[in-house]
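Problem: given the chain below (220 residues), write out its structure.
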Amino acid sequence: MFETILKDIQAVKERDPAARSTLEILLTYPGLHALFLHRIAHFFYRNHLKLIARLLSHINRFLTGIEIHPGAEIGKGVFIDHGMGVVIGETAVIKDNVTLYQGVVLGGTGKERGKRHPTVEKGAVIACGAMVLGSFTVGENARVGAGAVVLNSVPANSTVVGVPAKVVIQDGRRVSKLDHASVPDPCIQQVGKMNAQIALLEERILQLEERLKKQELKIS
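Solution.
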């Protein structure tokens, strides 16, 4: 446990240029506090004291703004930078030296049972606001762009971006060009569907009105 905490502190020193001293890190980094409390909660969870584990997890969320289910497995040297709004599900597995930024969600789709959250391999970086949803693997040293929605496995040494996320860099070589101007906007798509449905309903109303008029003429 002590060795793991030292690795977590070292990860902050190496990856955050704003970190000036060990004391500052221990006192002011909520991501480190969240990991420390989670490791205690995970100990209770593994030893079948799940209510205590969940209570610790709840306190952890209240104190740090980071929600980690006590069942999640988290390796050494993990760095949660800023961390507000981070959510890590019960069956998520995070290997050594992973970096997570604020607003990251390692969640499920609500359709699976058993292993339903992602596995994040060593050295991966998941940028702010990214949502990784489902039981699949984010490969070693992979990069997930800010705001991406990842629904499928991410290859090792690759970069994925977009909604849904697509591979744009693999092994340092660009494999796909992301044209932000042509990325579909889900809100616009939904509005377009609603407009089409409204137009269809208006057409049906006009047809019904014409039928009613014809019936009135026949009666008169």
